[in-house]
Amino acid sequence: MFELLKAGGILMVPILACSIIALAIVLERFYSLRPSRVAPQQTINELWRWIKKKELNGRKLKALQGSSPLGRILAGGLMNAKHGREIMKESIEHEASQVIHDLERFLNPLGTIATITPLLGLLGTVIGMIKVFAEIQLAGVGNAGNLAGGISEALITTASGLSVAIPALICHRYFIRRVDELVVGMEQEAIKLVEVVHGDREIDVEGA
């Protein structure tokens, strides 16, 4: 690995740094964006049971708020339910915007890494080719070893940049899609809560 980094030149250092950061982000987002963590079904079922049995109080609202991102959204709406439907919806939207911001954490840096690593590889290619042509200008085409070194540096940086960028881009798109799916699911639960609280919908007995 060290020989590969050495052969690729100085631009292998930022490419390697990008690969480490990208891997850390991917592992953290896989853990943080699990549906069982963001919108656990047991939290929803427990809330419906509390509402159905009229057991909802301040202590349980606090527990709901700290249980999960979905619980935070639903608790925000319930805390302002007495002020009317529109205020409740605004409270839910306010909490949801903060939750979505948290769900999208680190996705911009991951997308940036997917964008810049091919450019770093391309820059390495250009530098390597410059060295090749400089060597040709000074010594002609007879010194094959020096020419091969410049070409090797160009190819290694390009391959390394693409090797980091492709998985980073795939994971970035995947996480964006997962966030969208989680948001849609939480939005449906929030709408259902508003309708239940204001008497427009009956609680699902099976879900409760």
From TrEMBL:
Localization of this protein: Cell membrane; Membrane
InterPro entries listed in its UniProt record: ExbB/TolQ_transport, MotA_ExbB_proton_chnl
Record membrane topology: Multi-pass membrane protein
Keyword presence, Protein transport: yes
Domain MotA/TolQ/ExbB proton channel positions: 68-187
Record flagged with keyword Cell membrane: yes
Keywords: Cell membrane, Membrane, Protein transport, Transmembrane, Transmembrane helix, Transport
Top-rank lineage group of the source organism: Bacteria
GO cellular component, one term: plasma membrane
Gene Ontology BP annotations: protein import
Residue intervals passing through the bilayer: 6-27, 110-134, 154-176
Predominant localisation class: membrane
PANTHER family: MOTA_TOLQ_EXBB PROTON CHANNEL DOMAIN-CONTAINING PROTEIN, PROTEIN TOLQ
Family stated for the protein in its record: Belongs to the exbB/tolQ family.
Name of the protein this chain belongs to: MotA/TolQ/ExbB proton channel family protein
